[in-house]
Every structure is written in structure tokens, then in C-alpha cells.
Amino acid sequence: MLVNTFEQVLTLSALGSALILLLFLLRPLTAKHFAPKWQYYIWLLVLNTLVIPLPKPVKEVVYLPETHPLLPMTQAPMQPLTKVMVEKVVMVDWMQVFAIIWVAGVLFSLALKLTRYCFFKSTLRENSKADTLAVPLPKGLYVRRTWLLDAPLLIGVFRPTLYLPESVSESDLAHILAHELMHYKR
After folding, report:
1. Rounded to an integer, what distance in angstroms lies between the CA atom of residue 25 and that of residue 175?
2. Radius of gyration of the CA atoms of the chain, in A
3. Which residues contact 18 (CB under 8 A, 6 or more apart)?
4. pLDDT tens digit string along 19-62?
5. Cβ neighbours of residue 45 under 8 Å, at least 6 residues apart?
6. pTM for the structure as a whole
7. Nearest Cα residue to 168 out of 155, 160, 180, 184
């Protein structure tokens, strides 16, 4: 199963890479004639190509009739079996080796990203202070001010928090909130 998954990922990556290359090559033509909304949806199609597996072709199974010449005759007497010593040759399945290396790399990368994310989030939390804005905000959205950031940042899925730089002026706050609340909505 691991080898099949790895082969599927390789196939999806190759197909997605070919589509990305094609889109980049056609971009000078498509940018002139198609709206940005079209480009957004075509990139979603490429993203789906990278994520959704392709159906595997079904191998045809052929059943031979009982009287086929390749089948032994059922009336023939059984021959005694002789013992034969066979040396077992172990072949390395390279696809399985590559699949295991791939899974190890994915798990290592995921652990590294999650560790960095948690460290970043805790650093932001420790070096920020809660802020109450005069503007009404959706329920469950928290706002904090920090000196660590140069630009606003919305972070978190279960407890979303909007981190604002301390240098944000009140005149820019309305535009920043409109932008960040769009991220929150999505």
C-alpha cells in the first residue's frame, strides 16, 4: 500500500508540474484575454490535480474455460512431487525503499514545521498585549498588539487572533481590519 501511495504521489506531482509549466508558458497569452477570476479557477484546477488521486486502470482478468488446452487434464493421474532445494534470492524493492524515505521526509518536515509554528505562536503571544478596539469585531476574534511585527497577521484556526504592529495608526486601522476580517471570514 505504501508503494502504491508513493507511486500515486509521483504521478500526481509529475502531472501537476506539467500543468504548472504549461500555465506559466501560456500566461502572457491568457493574462491579456482572460480575467483574473479565470486564472484563479484554473489554478484551483491545478491544485486539485496535485491533491486528488487519479483512478487506477482496472486490469482485465481472464478466466480460462475448463477444457482449455493450457489447463491440465482432470483425468490424468497425479505425479508424485519431488523435493527441490531452491535458494531464496532477496531482491531489494527500490520503490518501497524510496517510499519509506519519502514518508520519513514528510514526517520530519511536518514535525519541523509544527515545531516552528508553535514556537512562533508562543513568541508572539509572550511579546504582545491584549488590545480592545473601538470597532465591533466578530465574536471569537481576539486582537493583540506586538512590537515583533511590521505588518498585521491573523493566526490560528480554533482561536483566531489578529496581531497588530504597535506602529499602526488609527487612520490605517479601518483598512487593515477590512482586509484581515476578509481572511477571518474565509
Report:
1. 36
2. 30
3. none
4. 899 989 988 888 888 888 888 888 888 888 777 766 666 666 66
5. 19
6. 0.59
7. 180
